[in-house]
């Protein structure tokens, strides 16, 4: 292994794979290996898995597990369709797909002749399918296994395995003590009978490296689940939230007459400028209690999903440009293609 890396023997592909395996053997985490080798964490996991299975043969370019196979447009559409379906629809005895089971099913059904797990993972990501591996306990309830939930928790704890979570908390809500009281009109009822009647909004941070952040303000329709307005800036001034609300009003024809907009008690949402923008566009303000995020849970949940699915385990984006592009791409797919069970498994735009 050291001979390959020091002398640079073989191709660049061989050298990079050997480097990943050696770094892993030295105890470096997969995410860090991906960062220093300028590749994805999934790719690193596949290289390490292939090496553990097939040894040094897996390091060379002709190895069959290397470059993912390309697929025709009809094949891609069929793979995407099956990935979004439930196994029960195909009379299969498990509740959710894993990459292994999905790949085996695609081959068994003749959709493709062969497909690697890496190729399937890349294809699903390119097609915008929000595909996750099944949670450990849910997978273990598959008929092929018989594992108690507490045993899974004990084994994970002993191995030091934890779920991916957002490690650093950045405060974006700074209460304003002198704010004029505004009633809570939603009372944690995050439903709406028709679009353009109830919205939620919040501010979240977007880490862009070196301790720097951008900030995202959102305006989400509670009926159609559409992100109607949003704004990104490098500051937390009131313009951040007023720009998002103005964008939402522009989408709705210039006004939001009678629409209820609840928010937290952050200084941006209690500012006079924000109250004036709400009044000019016919928005009825609502505000939850101080010190609790439950009164704005729908907006909190949306922001958490956005960052989890765009960062995909990374600590930050490489810069502001990458962060803005990632958010724009995710929001576009969310509004036009992402299906929601609460609106009949169609996208927000299609629902409206």
Descriptive report:
- The protein has 352 residues and is mostly helical.
- Helices cover 43% and strands 9% of the residues.
- It has helices spanning 2-7, 12-25, 30-36, 41-54, 73-84, 99-108, 117-126, 136-140, 149-159, 239-251, 267-270, 272-280, 297-311, 320-336, 348-351; strands at residues 199-207, 213-221, 227-233, 260-263, 284-287.
- The chain has a three-stranded antiparallel sheet. Strands 4-5 form a two-stranded parallel ribbon.
- The longest helix has 17 residues, at 320-336.
- The chain is globular, with a radius of gyration of 24 Å.
- Residues 5-9, 63-67, 132-145 and 170-178 have low confidence and may be disordered.
- The number of helical segments is 15
Could you tell me how far the N terminus lies from the C terminus, measured between alpha carbons in angstroms? 58 Å
Oligomer: single chain
Number of strands: 5
Strand coverage percent: 5-15%
SSE blueprint and pairings:
Elements lengths: L1 H6 L4 H14 L4 H7 L4 H14 L18 H12 L14 H10 L8 H10 L9 H5 L8 H11 L39 E9 L5 E9 L5 E7 L5 H13 L8 E4 L3 H4 L1 H9 L3 E4 L9 H15 L8 H17 L11 H4 L1
Parallel strand pairs: 4-5
Antiparallel strand pairs: 1-2, 2-3
Index terms:
352 residues; mainly alpha; 3-stranded antiparallel beta sheet; two-stranded parallel sheet
Summarize the structure.
With 352 residues, this protein is mainly alpha-helical.
């Amino acid at each position: 292994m050291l001979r390959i890396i020091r002398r640079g023997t073989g191709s660049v592909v061989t050298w990079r794979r050997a480097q990943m395996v050696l770094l892993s053997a030295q105890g470096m985490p997969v995410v860090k290996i991906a960062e220093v080798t300028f590749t994805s964490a999934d790719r690193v996991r596949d290289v390490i898995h292939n090496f553990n299975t097939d040894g040094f043969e897996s390091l060379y370019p002709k190895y069959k597990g290397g470059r993912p196979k390309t697929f025709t447009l009809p094949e891609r559409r069929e793979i995407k369709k099956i990935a979004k379906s439930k196994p029960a629809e195909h009379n299969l005895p498990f509740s959710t797909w894993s990459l292994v089971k999905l790949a085996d099913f695609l081959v068994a059904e003749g959709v493709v002749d062969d497909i690697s797990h890496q190729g399937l993972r890349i294809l699903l990501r390119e097609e915008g399918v929000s595909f996750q591996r099944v949670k450990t306990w849910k997978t273990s309830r598959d008929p092929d296994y018989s594992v108690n939930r507490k045993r899974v928790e004990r084994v994970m704890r002993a191995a030091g395995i934890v779920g991916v979570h957002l490690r650093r908390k950045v405060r974006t809500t700074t209460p304003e003590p002198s704010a004029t009281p505004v009633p809570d009109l939603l009372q944690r009822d995050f439903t709406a009978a028709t679009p353009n009647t109830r919205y939620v909004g919040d501010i979240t941070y977007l880490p862009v490296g070196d301790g720097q952040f951008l900030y995202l303000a959102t305006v989400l329709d509670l009926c159609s689940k559409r992100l109607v307005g949003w704004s990104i800036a490098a500051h937390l001034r009131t313009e951040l939230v007023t720009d998002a609300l103005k964008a939402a009003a522009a989408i709705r024809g210039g006004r939001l007459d009678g629409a209820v907009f609840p928010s937290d008690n952050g200084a941006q949402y209690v500012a006079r400028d924000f109250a004036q923008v709400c009044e000019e566009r016919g928005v009825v303000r609502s505000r939850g209690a101080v010190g609790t995020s439950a009164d704005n849970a729908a907006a909190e949940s949306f922001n958490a999903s956005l960052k989890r699915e765009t960062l995909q385990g990374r600590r930050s984006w490489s810069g502001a440009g990458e962060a803005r592009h990632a958010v724009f791409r995710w929001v576009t797919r969310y509004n036009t293609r992402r299906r929601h069970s609460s609106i009949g498994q169609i996208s927000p735009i299609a629902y409206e």
